Structure formats: structure tokens, C-alpha cells
Amino acid sequence: MARAQYIETPCKTALNRVRGMPFNWSLNPYRGCTHACHYCYARATHAYAGMNADEDFETKIVVKTNLPEVLRRELARPSWVRERVALGTATDAYQPCEGRYRLTRRALEALLERRNPVGVVTKSTLILRDLDLLAALAAVASVSVYVTVTTLDPALWRLVEPGTPPPLQRLAIVRRLNEAGVPTGVLAAPVLPAITDGAAALDALAAAAAAHGARSFGVSPLRLAPLVKEHYLRVVAAAFPDLLPRYERAFPGVNAPRAYQEALERRVARVRARHGLAARDPRPAFTAIAPSPVSPGNHGQLALGL
Predict the structure, then answer these.
(1) What are the two backbone dihedrals, phi and then psi, of residue 242, each rounded to the nearest 5 degrees?
(2) Nearest C-alpha neighbor of 192 from the set 149, 150, 230, 157
(3) Strands (DSSP E) along 115-225, which ranges?
């Protein structure tokens, strides 16, 4: 991966109004993400800043340097009624540069001061640095954390999420968070049709979540918005050429076919029941080419609705 550059810029607002989601407000300290997940729906947001959804998204990271100060002003407004804030909905708030800039930690400090409910979704083990703040906030407000794990397959992980921590390292933090009183579940987001949706793969992932003390196990079907679709399908063409025509037929628009989504949810419901896991909390923060060939290898893939 190319070396990232960080574009420091002030922001005018910190809290973003969101519609059509399980939350009304989001907070994003960064734009772009060095996790470089090829399926990431946030790739399209880079176009708003005149950058591309490919390498620019992975290497040109916008840093909102004054976000904690702006957030404090917004939380202090008389009109603010302590609604739930989803942290890092566009890109991971705990991507590696957070270790340097600490914008997410300072935002959590501001939210703790106001006892404001928070939801976090992350792929990063860096969240453990802020265990003290999350535990303190969970003691006085509603807090939920979802650790995203897309696959346990090492080769597939390196292919689709080249800049993220290994899956087992992510799972290891689930128990730590729950033991500290921070309600934490595992989120398979997104599920990649015919690649990570096999019955055996989902069962293994749910079993691992349960073994690591997850309180819930949720999934989110793949969405392919413009720009994201073009990027993702290039990865499919290189790694899984036989699947490309099926994807092209199944995704004329943004969402997977309704029949596929319903079949996926039924499969996941059986997996949850088998491992004693709850469904995803209705109040969460979200709702997310290697040269060596990788075979999907998951027995029982769902049909792509063709």
C-alpha cells in the first residue's frame, strides 16, 4: 500500500444529521481510511472532496483538527437533547492515525462530560486505549460497541481488508470490552455474496464471536453504491473472475436482491440460535488486489438471486 498523507483541515460542524438510519446523528473525525477495505461504502464520500474512491480514499486522509472543540460547542447548545451519536460512520474513527491525533478520544471526553449516548463500530484494536472512557460513559449513558469481522480466512482477510488488524486480534478485544462493562457485539459487515456468506463460514464466525464473549451477532448485506461498485467489481474480476457476471446481474442497483437479503437473514437467524447469540441491537452505531488467487471456498453459498 502507498504511504498515506494526512490533510489537516478545520471543520465547521462536528455532528452530522442523518436520515433513514437507526440513529439521527453521526460523528466522523476523519475522511478516508487506511484500512482500505475494498467493499467500504464510504469510498464514495471522497468524491465530495474532489478525490477518487480508489487510492485517494486509502492514502489521502482528511483530519478534522478542531472537531473536539466544535463538538463541545454543539453539545452545549440548549437545543441539544442528548440524542445517540454514532461514532465513525463514514470511516473508522480508530484507524491508525487516531494514535497520533487522538480526535476520537477527545470527542469521547466531550460526550462523557454530557453523559451522551454513543454507538461505535470499529475494526481496530486501538479502541482498547479508550476503555477507561467507554466504561465510564457506559456507567452513565447508553453505549454500544460493534467490532466488525468480515471473515476468519487469513487469505481472504488480506485480500478484502488489507489495512486492518487480523480478525482474531479484533475478536480478542470483544471480551475485554464486555468485561469492562461496555456492551459489545460482533458485526459481519458487509457479508459478501458467494464469498463470505457460506453456511460454514457464517457458523464459524458466530462460534468465534460467542467464544470471545460477544453479546450479539449481526450482519449487513453488501451495498454497492456508484464508485464503490466500480472499485469492488475490479477486485472481484481479479480475484474471483467466475463471480463477476453474477455480480453484474445481481447488482443493477445499489442493493442485493431482496430474496437474497431475506435468505441471508434466515441463515443468520439459525446461526444465532445455534450459538446463543442475540440479534443486533436496534440502536447501534451503524446500520461497511492481492496477486495470489483466493477461492471463495465456503460451502453452501447463497444464490445471488439470479
Answers:
(1) -65, -25
(2) 150
(3) 118-122, 143-148, 184-191, 217-221
Tell me the residue ranges of DSSP E strands in 57-195: 60-64, 85-87, 118-122, 143-148, 184-191
| Measured distance CA(304)–CA(306) in Å, rounded | 6
Q: Taking the model in full, what pTM does it have?
A: 0.91
Query: Could you give the CA distance from residue 112 to residue 257 in angstroms, rounded to a whole number?
Result: 41
Q: Which residues touch 38 (CB under 8 Å, ≥6 apart)?
A: 159, 160, 161, 231, 232, 235
Query: What is the rounded distance in angstroms from the CA atom of residue 96 to the CA atom of residue 139?
Result: 27
Listed in sequence order, the residues at least 6 apart from 10 whose beta carbon sits closer than 8 Å to its beta carbon are: 64, 65, 66
In the 8-state DSSP scheme, what is residue 186? E
Q: Delineate the domains of the chain, giving CATH numbers in brackets.
A: 5-275 (3.20.20.70)
Pairwise CA distance, residues 171 & 175, whole Å: 8
Q: By C-alpha distance, which of 290, 289, 285 is closest to 91?
A: 285
Helix H or strand E encompassing 151: none
Neighbours of 29 (CB within 10 A): 30
Q: Among the residues of 143-195, which ranges form H helices?
A: 154-160, 167-179
Q: Are 286 and 187 in contact (CB under 8 A)?
A: yes
Q: What is the pLDDT along the chain (306 residues), one digit of tens a residue?
A: 578 999 999 999 999 998 877 789 999 999 999 999 999 999 998 888 889 999 999 999 999 999 999 999 999 999 999 999 999 888 999 999 999 999 999 999 999 999 999 999 999 999 999 999 999 999 999 999 999 999 999 999 999 999 999 999 999 999 999 999 999 999 999 999 999 999 999 999 999 999 999 999 999 999 999 999 999 999 999 999 999 999 999 999 999 999 999 999 999 999 999 999 998 654 444 333 333 345 554 546 776 654
* All cell numbers assigned to 238: 481479479
